[in-house]
Amino acid sequence: MASGCPPYIRCNGVQSHPGNILVLAVSEDSKILASGGYEGTRVWSTKTMTQLKRPSAAGSRGATVSLLWVRQTDEPRDVLYSGTQNGYFFAWRQVDETFEETLAIQIAHPGEITGLGFDTTNNRLCICSRNDIVQSWTILKDPLTGKWTAQNIFSQRYPNLSPQAITFAAFDNTKDRDIMVFGLHNNGPIYTLRGKTGEIASEWSAGANIGDATVDWREGILCLDDPAAGPTLFRLTDQTKARVFEIPRERKYKMRPRQVSFAESGLAIISGSDHGVVYVFETRTGDVLQKLQVGISQWVQAIAVGTRNVGCRDPMASGGTIVRRERGVVGQDIGERGIC
């Protein structure tokens, strides 16, 4: 690995996950893995890969298609937000070794919630849905009863956007932080929205479909998933394309969105493929640092990167989790969910 990083090795895995996995997310402390799919949201200990107890309504709102771990005011542990195919978003918090649901809302004009973002400073959640809707919410907690509520800030529709990912602008220190949203079709439209009203402040095009997006605000770079080519790096300052990290396509007539992620403090970029391989690229050069065979020969569309030691004890364990001593990467088959 570049910059003295030891290589990734497989340490552990979920041997019998029910149904296809559509999305993955690792908690900030890397102790818990969340998976989403047609059976709803599930949570797993990364140390033992055993499933943790979840609320009973977890699979009753349609497939879970988006996940986000957040640090939330007045909560001692990370909070998990899920978005579903039927237009629900809900929040779980951990209590001992189980999770309890604190909030559940179905948006008006329900559509698949394709992206979630969170502003920790102001306890605000932004969401985007497949039917071109973007919303922002303030998450409130009653100091006496502990009950959570969500207060809508704005809800706007942006025709033909097909939003696929969303995030708050990290270096905007105002109460109403701007929001960036990334569209799937029409050459990948990227909007910056005013955090208070949803008004379009600026827009530009990535020049290709966008399957996923991740931002390294510290370095001022943006990585997009181009389902036809591979991860694509842009500079935020001038919106120019810096590099394409090419991933071979074995299924020429099928394309699916892939999760992409920065790793190793931005020194690496990680993405899946249509042939059972997780690719680790060096951000600066574009070189392939490693090809990780995850034990399946089909789509690897869902990946998640942790940032702390996950207690890997058995480097020979098989399954869908690939872990290096200080970082964790998870890959798995996404199932039948393509570009349309």
TrEMBL record:
Keyword Transmembrane helix tagged: no
Example GO biological process: ribosomal large subunit assembly
SMART domains (UniProt xref): WD40
Gene3D superfamilies found in the cross-reference section: YVTN repeat-like/Quinoprotein amine dehydrogenase
Annotated localization: Nucleus
Protein's UniProt keywords contain rRNA processing: no
Gene Ontology, cellular component aspect: nucleolus
Keywords from the UniProt entry: Nucleus, Repeat, WD repeat
Protein known as: WD40-repeat-containing domain protein
Source species: Mycena maculata
